Structure prediction request, 171 residues.
Amino acid sequence: MKAYLDIETCAGGAVTVVGIYREDRGLRQLVGGEITDVSVWEALDGVDTLCTFNGDRFDLPILGRQVRLDLRKQFASLDLLRECRRVGLKGGLKRLEERFGIARNTRGMNGWDALHLWARYEAEGDREALRILLEYNREDVMNLVQLERIVVGVGFEVEPRAESREPRGES
Prediction:
């Protein structure tokens, strides 16, 4: 069983939102104090593979430190950033979404915006900021499903550049 995972953090580096999608359970988002070793473990119960974008270097180590679970040892990892690089695709998640026409209501937002939304929610109790942050995280998680289908599921290959297809003259 595979789970798609993405986290958001605050400026201090603490995890503020964990989004986890499983086909058998749908999307679950843990927020703030809900993010514990027990809640993460429960959300991942029965999972053998975690699908992320840059999760091997960002999401899994940060989440693991916060909840004291070594997620990289407990689960196989399908890091879509690594898979994209393997087939010659460059750019971050948002750039790849644009390239492949993957829809996003929060288009134009990035991780810095997520930091500011959490700060507004935490400092002012701004429920609208939290709603937008959760939508941003939801789209990050759910778009991993589509990106995986494009890059891994159908064996996407980047076409070579036109100049590399031309025969080279012999000297």
